[in-house]
Amino acid sequence: MSELMELVPVGGGAVSAVGVRPHELVQLYLATLRTDSGRRAMESALRELGRWLGVGNPYLVNWPGLGAVGVAALLARIQHHQSWQPANKARHEAALLGIMRAAYRAGVLDADTLQRCQSHPRTKVKRRAGHHATGRQLSHDELNKLARAAATLSPHETVRRRDSAFIALLAGCGLRREECLTLQTPDENGLPAHLVVHG
After folding, report:
1. pLDDT classification of 171: cutoffs 50, 70, 90
2. Do 114 and 68 touch, CB atoms closer than 8 A?
3. DSSP 8-state assignment for residue 3
4. What is the dihedral of CA 134, 139, 144, 150, to 10 degrees?
5. Cβ contacts of residue 47 below 8 Å, gap of 6+?
6. CA-to-CA distance for 26 and 31, rounded, in angstroms?
7. Which pLDDT score is estimated for 133?
8. Is the predicted pLDDT of residue 154 greater than 60, yes or no?
9. pTM score, whole prediction
10. Which tens digits make up the pLDDT trace of 3-29?
11. Are 61 and 55 spatial neighbours (Cβ–Cβ below 8 Å)?
12. Of 45, 7, 11, 2, nearest to 26 (Cα)?
């Protein structure tokens, strides 16, 4: 395998002027992920897919060279993997399609091939009963229950006030947990009744 990927025509037959090495493509894809744990999970998924391709190291695989047919074959193998849970299948599918999107953005995969790769059915992951999506907005009833619990659970008045203040800030101001927990007394400006949140 050559160190540079073979360039694929993009956009009306124009060829990308810059070659992209396989390891750079994986790095480009992983850089689009927000968290370290997400990067580790997707790198692990790409490593497993690389093993299936006989390479093992995802940084050495010519991902765009798979084409739509190769991606379809890998997606079928993922979906028919008997010992994997749906979430694990979905993670591997996301990693494969994510690296193909990165190849498209890098100019080494044409739009038609990307569209054909993305057109295959994906694994559906069912949420557990009673499990809510992360980051959802609480209902009015849930906020009331939370406020009542904060106002009554602790025997210490200062703890009850602190917890009630946190709930009011989180629910009323749209602060994130981390922003709320890092607030300091000097951040409060009493007269105009506002908080200064340092990001």
Report:
1. confident
2. no
3. S
4. 0
5. 56, 57, 58
6. 9
7. 59
8. yes
9. 0.58
10. 444 433 333 333 333 467 767 889 999
11. yes
12. 45
pLDDT in tens, 75-133: 999 999 889 898 899 999 999 999 999 999 988 889 999 999 999 888 887 766 666 55
Quote the tokens at residue 12: 């009306």
Q: How many CB atoms lie within 10 A of CB 172?
A: 9
Give CA–CA dist 62/70, Å, rounded: 11
- The one-letter amino acid code at 120 reads H
Residue ranges per structural domain of the chain: 9-118, 140-195
CA distance 170 to 16: 48
CA end-to-end span of the chain: 46
SS3 for 87?
A: helix
Bridge partner list, 9:
15
d(CA 146, CA 169): 13
84 CB contacts (<8 Å, ≥6 apart)? 78, 92
Q: What is the pLDDT of residue 48?
A: 94
CA angle at residue 61 from 34 to 28, to 5 degrees?
25
Residue 180 has pLDDT above 80, yes or no: no
- What is the dihedral angle through the alpha carbons of 35, 37, 38, 43, rounded to the nearest 10 degrees? 130
E strand intervals along 45-174: none
pLDDT at position 149 is: 85
